[in-house]
Here is the input.
Amino acid sequence: MTRTERSRTALLVGRHALLFTHTAPCRVPLVFQEQSLNLSMVVDLDGIICCIKQGDVSGVQSQLQEFNKEYAQCFFFDAEEKERRKFRKNKVRQSSGSDSDCDEYDQDDGDLVLRQNLAVVLVRFIRTQMKSQVLRLCLRSLRILSRDKKVLGPMVTDSALITLARVAGLTTSDAVEEGSDPDSDFYDSIIASLAKARLPQTRTDVDGDDTEAGDQHEEYPAFEEDAKSDVSIANSGDLDSISWSGRHRPSINEMHQTGDHHKVLERGKRDRRESAMDGDEDEEEERSGGEMERKEAMKVLCNVVYNSTWAQERFSALRLLCGLTQRLSSSTSSSSPSSVHFYELRLMFLMTALRPELRTQLQQEGGVSILTAALESSLEAQWKNQYECELGPAAAPISLEASQRIIEILKILFNITYSAHRQEPSEEDASLYRHLVAILRLCLMRKCMLSDDTDELQSHTVNLLSALPLQCLDVLLTPPQQTDSQQSQSANMDCVHILLLFMERRLESGDRVKEKLTPVLNLLTESCRAHRETRRYVRKHILPPLRDVSHRPEDGSTVKSRLIRLMTHLDTDLKHCAADLIFVLCKENVRRFVKYTGYGNAAGLLATRGLLGGQTSVTLRSDTQYSSDSDSDTEEYLQVKDRVNPVTGRVEAEQPDPMEGMTEEEKEEEAKRLIMLFNKLSRDKIIQPMGVNSEGKLVPMMGLREDSITEAGESGSDHDGDEKGKES
Here is the structure.
């Protein structure tokens, strides 16, 4: 096929946009712009193979530079290609004398073979000794190809993973499958397969198309088996929550069922920060001694691991986490962190998020202490005493690069400690966790250069604090008070104040309320239950003494009103979290809880806990610390207390008596009519009358009546027995 013919039929290079930008593989906004590209017009794969075969390094370099420049932000995806071909096949049958669509089908298959063979050649080529600049170009091309799941086959073998890990500095082992110096027959077979793929093959029916696809699957069995089980996440903005969210997420194919053929992603946040780096790569390479190659190899590993379940399993089986941990330890001890440090952390986060056994392995190998040291180094913490970091009044904001490293460390720490709050820590672990909490206090108090980074840093800090044992969080309150410190009695409340402000911002945002609010609500609830000073301070800000009761408790823009509105939210977990916090601030006293929220808002939590029967309090847990202070009413509340409607929690306007002017007979007839209406609604199962049983739980009225009759019968039988006993 000539170049003119190839330009006439566009090679739809990967039908869908994937995930990763060229510098931040897991942080990309889903902003798309349509673009049409043709792989065979941009890169001559035959020429690359011939250059490699002949040792023409400059030729390989020029070809790969053109490829990387053209496809730096392109994302290949062919998940829907089969369905599109079926649709177009039927369209071609209806139109006579046109074979352009059929040619396009062949070109699409040939283009996929092009990319797959390019990946095979590059994986083999990077095992040879080559100049660092050529190696970097090869790795960048592999990184671009690794965005397409249908091209992952050559990159998920043990040999390829070990090769990439060796370049990334995670291992010193050699490849375990193919040799490092392929002979000419290997390249000749590649060229032959490419020539075969380029031959136009007119398909006459859908069955023929399916048969050819099946043959192609047999050519790359390792990848095709992986593609059947892979469930990657398409929305890279939700990737941070993967470590603490176990619900099913749609695959990339599902996310893009209505997408266009080929799309380009906007540069991500980290890309914009590092835009000046592109022009100085050669200088940086000379200074770093292979750092750029390690970074590129690490990016490829991130893409491959993120997109392939098989690669995740092999990464675990090959024990590459040990090399990653050693790299992280050496990076922490270094005086100046390298640029590859962020990608080491990102790869560790992906593996601990996706492979449960690696979380346990990392924790057993001292991962908490290693990551704590890395966090301390990134924050440049200065210690005043054992559990107190120095925090100057004019501390410099955390740099952009340091804030990203810190966030990655916090996410990894959450992955390996998320269940620690359910366990009783040993003395050694408790000391380690308190040391970590002291550093986390610094994360809460320090600011980043960007406000969005500050909010993200505090969010991940809150998540990690909620995962640690509660008894170790007392370190947050122990620092000595300063002149401008928030305080409650003798405790320093600066961190609690930051948490309250953080919660208020999340309440005002109104976006993804459950994911953003439940961690901080749970953390404040448990802290208030365990520390009476914290409860007093939080109650003063959320539940001030009642004065104005002319409005419903949920009306208004105060923090209290917003939290009470959440108590009737559709999401069960969210409404229980909000109700629990208010309930704990009321010292788990039912009367006080109803007073502040109204019975209508409080009924959900009271029914869940079996407190609808009128109990005034509950049995407190052993770790609960509530003070003995009473809830004194204000003078304004006492004046209208008798007129407050307990259901709505406000003073209602006086309503006329509906029975006024009616005789006793008319009242009796009205009562009978209402009873008949209720009975009709109950028989038609439109409503179900409910009552409260002896345990304070809501049960159907019929069941409640049967229980009462049974109890009365049992008590009567006992009484008769007692009487007979007396007579005898």
In short: Residues 1-42, 176-182, 200-280 have pLDDT under 50 and may be disordered. The longest helix spans residues 701-727. The first strand starts at residue 32 and ends at 34. The radius of gyration is 34 Å.
